[in-house]
Amino acid sequence: MLSSLATGNWNFATAAHLLNRAAFGGTPAEIEAARGKGLAKVVRELVDASAATIPPAPAWAQPRNIREIRMAIREEKNEGDGRNEKRREFRQMEGENILDLRRWWLNQMMTTSAPLVEKMTLFWHGHFATSVEKVRDGYWMWRQNDLFRRHALGNFAALTKEISRDPAMMIYLDLQQSRKEHPNENWARELMELFTVGIGNYSEADIRESARAFTGYRIDMTTQQFRFAPRQADVGPKTFMGKTGPLLGDDIIGILMKQPACAQFLARKLWRFFAEDDPSPQIVEAVAARLREHNFEMRPVLSEIFSSKEFYSDAAMRTQIKSPVQYLIQTTKLLATDPPAAPVAQNAMRQMGQILFAPPNVKGWDGGKAWVSTSTLLFRYNFANYLINGDAMRPNADPAKQKGGDLGFRRGPAFVNVPPRDPIDVSKVIPTELRTKPAELVAHLSTRLFQAPVPDKEREAFLQYLKAREPDTGDATMRGLLHLMMSTPQFQLA
Amino acid sequence: MDTSLHTRRQFLRTSMLGAAASWTLPVFLEKTFFALDAVAADAATQAVTGKDGTILVVLQMAGGNDGLNMVVPFADDAYYKARPKLGIPADKILKLDSYAGLNPNLTGLKSLFDEGHLSVIQGVGYPNPNRSHFRSTEIWQTASDADRNENEGWLGKYFDNCCAGADPTVGVAIGDQMPQAFVARTPTGVTFSRPEQFRWIPSEKRNGPMSAEETFFRQLNGATDDDAAPPTTNDGGSIAAIPGSTRANQSAVDFLQRTALDAQLSSDKILAIARKTKSTMPYPPGQLAASLSLIARMIAGGLPTRVYYASQGGFDTHAGQLGTHDRLMTDLNAALSAFVADLKEQGNFDRVLLMTFSEFGRRVAENANGGTDHGAAAPMFALGGAVKAGLFGKYPSLTELDHGDLKFNTDFRSIYGTILDRWLKAPSELVLGHKFSSLPIIG
């Protein structure tokens, strides 16, 4: 079982750890404030985020009569002059909408007063993985994101039932075409393999019976909403995991929630997302027990996780490789600067391997060490340079001259209209009087960037850099130091 | 050819000193090489390298290439009936046998065929074909069955199972993103569009001697933790002291440090070769030619890469296909011909095998927009000095179709398997999970 963290162990380091994981990291001032409040209060504030944190939808995110639009496109195609204006327009709009949706969510993550809500929204997005590449509609992706946010700290069983009726998910896993005569098994399989009990805890027969239970789920294409089509539904008797009856979709989910493997499966995912890459079976069972005890209510379970000694273990603290989302948001915060323009941010996330609304497949993102390869690591280092120095760091600062191959994150004609990015204001991050005090400067920045003192070897290198730059303590040297500190393995960890 | 064991250390020494004469090999890098060597020595066989051995180049034709207009069944009436606008006249086709021939723009490939260096494998596909770009591409990249969702690529599995101790550049993909084919348990392989991109960019741009920033960057990303460093003698003792070669048993910080070192070394090596080796062969314009030219330079420069990956986009020809596909075939032909000429000039043609693939072919019947829609089976090319020329597999029937699409008769994993077993000398059953029948395409 989970034990509580002793009050004496609540300090700057543990406060920083909590903010790194349950939020997107804190500045030294924020960490100090949290330390002052005490563990219980901080956890309560994180977990008690109210409904006021639900942001309004982007203006374009309204349901439309898709059937009408598609008919118009088909008519135009049949006229056969090959211009396909309507389809082109539709596609372009969808492309722009998704770009805007990514901007919208990143902005939400940066500015929210309820960061744990956003972290859990991200968790659910990876768990109930759905990709716009198949769904091809910004409104549906927004709607799913909104669903995750509303249920972020709510009940997992309820959320699972809702997601079975979510149009984006239904399209992604072919549920909206599942017919009584020949039920589609894609959703049924993934519901068990990836969303609830995990592989090996169900039979092929269970999949078939489950697929029968989810027939009749449809999307009304004139309103883009879920509708149930009773005539398409198989309401006959079914046997699923030993239970027999005229089971329908919600019944299947209810049965799955009762399987011991379900709590275990979710527990492991939660611990991997928030604490450690490789949890022991004991910890998994301890968290699973809390999930069962609280009937899959996330608020109390997360509260207990964040108050536990195990969450603050040596194996957990400062050992998580930042996801690209975390990297972008946290770095921007720590540099006291704005995130890059939407097309740049999107391209950068793609290069780092995490495209919001487009997980690589239904398994979502593996996370941890999977974020890092020689290419993505070099990219993170160079991207830090861009965040710090802006466009001045690009080999050819004129966007019109950039043909393919510009460091991968800002190139081509699409970026000509993106305003140039200036270097950061160093004074927001480095107190002027520290510029001439190398040891204190390095300590100050280590606290800010690593939330912990760095090993001697690293500290020596930073100090020697400053020495080599003497007597120059101007902005260029300061930015060089920041970049050097961020071009380290340590900076990838939170 | 020098057959002695080229340790990574020796190779790196010569290339790095050649490239960056302004600084000598610091002690901390020296120490690290022992770690690298020990890993290589620990591998039961000689570490896999493309420096002297065979090289595979994978060329992805992205979007769904129209196989019917690339290898054309000119003798079949059904082809012309189904494609009144898109059918290519029989007298223009470069005949391979009495039934099928190459698209008129593929003159270079026709010469290769006549020379005996091009295999054309017909009717390639897989059971339960998927017609979604991203899903079918995933199937080809992971070599999975159509109803399984796998994450690791077939080449990634090759790297994991057969390339322990190999250089981080054992796989090189030219492009902006690592292809899924490379995804492995232990991240392997590097991706870049241009060599100058694959490097750390210091804050202050300057030419000439390395800046202070860069000096300390190298220091911070070069050494492993002192505690983890093995004893200074390389006598094979205490293998346990060496950081494990897979992700799973390394701590996050060790893994990051190892990756940082690999990044630095690969970057230096690639940049050194890019600077040293300039292409003397003329290449046509275009992104595919640029990628192949870069690959040819890397091969000439002795980069120990085993598998290169390049892609050519634009094949999703739903409308107005005639002009577009024509251009694509012309570009493909010109780029491949230049690449082959380059390799022959280098004397490396015999040890390179290039294979093409696309996520699916296209429908037999043309659509109402002068184009074609997503299909299924299609041909693949394999070319190289050691390839056995000829037509393999069967041209699928144009009348017995699967929902309007060509039925496959050669599973693409047979080709992967053949290449693994006979070209890369790797156990295909281990990598692919199954034994697939092999094809006699390698001489």
- Strand order in space, largest sheet of chain A: 1-2
Largest sheet of chain A: 2 strands, antiparallel
* N→C terminal distance of chain B: 21 Å
Give the structural class of chain A. mainly alpha
> Roughly what is the average pLDDT of chain A, rounded to an integer?
91
| Gap between N and C termini of chain A | 25 Å
Average residue-wise pLDDT of chain B: 82
Oligomeric category: heterodimer
The count of β-strands of chain A is 4
The gyration radius over C-alpha positions of chain B equals: 23 Å
Largest interface: A-B, 58 and 58 residues
Number of helices in the DSSP assignment of chain B = 12
Could you state the order of secondary-structure elements of chain B as H and E? HHEEHEEHEHHEEHHHEHEEEEHH
Written description of the protein model:
The complex is a heterodimer of chains A (494) and B (443). Residues 397-408 of chain A have low confidence and may be disordered. In chain A, strand 1 and strand 2 form a beta hairpin. Helix content of chain A is 52%, strand content 3%. With 494 residues, chain A is mainly alpha-helical. Chain A is built from 22 helices and four strands. In chain A, the strands form two sheets. In chain A, strands 1-2 form a two-stranded antiparallel ribbon. Chain B has helices spanning 8-19, 27-42, 77-82, 107-115, 133-142, 154-162, 212-220, 252-276, 287-300, 321-346, 412-423, 428-432, and strands spanning 55-61, 71-72, 94-95, 101-102, 118-125, 171-174, 190-192, 307-312, 352-358, 378-384, 390-392, 410-411. In chain B, 35% of the residues lie in helices and 12% in strands. In chain B, strands 1, 5, 6, 7, 8, 9, 10, 11 and 12 form a nine-stranded mixed sheet that branches. In chain B, strands 2-4-3 form a three-stranded antiparallel sheet. Chain B is globular. Chain B has 443 residues and is an alpha/beta fold. In chain B, helix 9 runs parallel beside helix 10. Chain B is built from twelve helices and twelve strands. At the A-B interface, helix 19, helix 21 and helix 22 of A face helix 5, strand 7, helix 7 and helix 8 of B.
